[in-house]
Automatic annotation (TrEMBL):
Coiled coil: none annotated. Pfam families: Ribosomal_L1. Belongs to the universal ribosomal protein uL1 family. Probably involved in E site tRNA release. Binds directly to 23S rRNA. Protein L1 is also a translational repressor protein, it controls the translation of its operon by binding to its mRNA. It comes from Methanomethylophilus alvi. This is Large ribosomal subunit protein uL1.
Amino acid sequence: MADKPTVMAVQKALESAKKRKFVETVELAVNLRDIDLSLPKNRIQEDVVLPKGRGKQVKIAVIGGGELALKAKDVADLVITPEELGTLAGNKKQAKKIANSVDYFIAEAPLMAVVGKRLGTVLGPRGKMPKPIAPGADPAPMIDNLRKSVTVRTKDRKTFHVPVGTVEMSADDIADNVDVIMKRVEGHLEKGKHNIDSAYIKTTMGPSERLM
């Protein structure tokens, strides 16, 4: 169960947001301090499974052939065969379009090097290099987890944003997601919460509500 201050901050952010014609995402914004993010070892990049899910569709693509492709057909949003991978590598416009529309990629382990060589320049900068999976494995469990996941990624900036749900979710559910992310972030920082300058909750177009 989320801490009461978190629930209250989320509730205020939801109440202060105007009704929109689309479902707004709820975001957590974190500002770090006293940490040198020019050093790669200090940066954070981690997929976190949200206990209450994202509250929205998360698109998953599987790169693989044979048995894996057959199993992925019914559970993934997109299946890219090794043959299609070669075609995609020669069409940067289409590759970027797919990279922008897909949240997570899974690739057959033996294809990881090929994916890196052919699509690394497109997927790498977006933080979307594939997660490896064994040939012929059932991708359903991994896909289920990724559909509930968000990527916490600082790059070299001290301010970063993470989606924690949508305005259609309850304040309690969103707060549960927020607390899980904050604990994971603190666990990565040398001084824990003392490396966090401030944190805010906001909807896509709504005002920010201070969390800490």
